[in-house]
Amino acid sequence: MKDFRHQRIIDHLIKEHLRGGKRITLRVSGKSMYPLIRKGDPVHIENCDPRTLSIGDIITFKRDGFYVTHRVLCVVKKDHTIKLITKGDNEITIDPLVSPHQVLGKVVDLGRADHIIHLERPFWRFINRLLGMIFLMEAVSILLYRFAAGKLIPLRTFVHITFKPSHFYRRLRKRGLNFATRIIA
User: How much is the pLDDT for 64?
Assistant: First the structure.
């Protein structure tokens, strides 16, 4: 219980720091945003209004006690409420819906050993928006594939089959990630 209380205090201090117009820097520990954000890269986060987020923006939010940095694929606005659909660039599935109160902030810069990538510059805004659209189409095509496979294959058989992309899909994804890696490096 003590650790939980300390974590709540730290979360509160981080949010107050961001609301004061300051940035925070967190170091990424996973590979879900590879190749754009690599394990160990520092990301600089600024406070943002979730209503101003758009496709392709990279945000940090809190889920199950962990900070997660993923790309926004879609902003769902319904009855004065907002939900965000997010996904890691290196993930196949989308995340559960993100509420505005979970959003910590927007990633504006990320560090590398020898330089800083400013994601708010026009070039990177264009690249991130393009990648957001590509990953949204990828997520929709995977959902359609799963739906079609569920309709064509008996349900009890489909439950035991894990989704495995076709050879063509794997090659396309690999080439896309290689292209993105060449742009970033």
Answer: 87
Task: Please determine, for residue 169, whether its predicted confidence score (pLDDT) is greater than 90.
Answer: no
Task: Classify 79 as helix, strand or coil.
Answer: coil
Beta-bridged to residue 59, according to DSSP, are 70, 106
**pLDDT score recorded for residue 125:** 94
Q: What are the structure tokens assigned to 32, written together?
A: 């879900």
Three-state SS at 117: strand
Tokens found for residue 137: 């189409």
Share of the chain above pLDDT 90, in %: 45
* pLDDT for position 9: 80
d(CA 61, CA 1): 23
- Given CATH 3.20.20.140, say whether it is the number of domain 1-185: no
CA distance 73 to 97: 11
With bands split at pLDDT 50, 70 and 90, how would you rate the model's confidence at 117?
Answer: very high
32 φ, ψ to 5°? -70, -20
- In whole angstroms, give the CA distance from residue 3 to residue 9: 10
First to last CA, the chain: 44
CA atoms within 13 A on the CB side of 22: 8
Residues 85 and 93 sit within 8 Å (Cβ to Cβ): no
Q: How far is it, in rounded angstroms, from Cα 61 to Cα 173?
A: 26
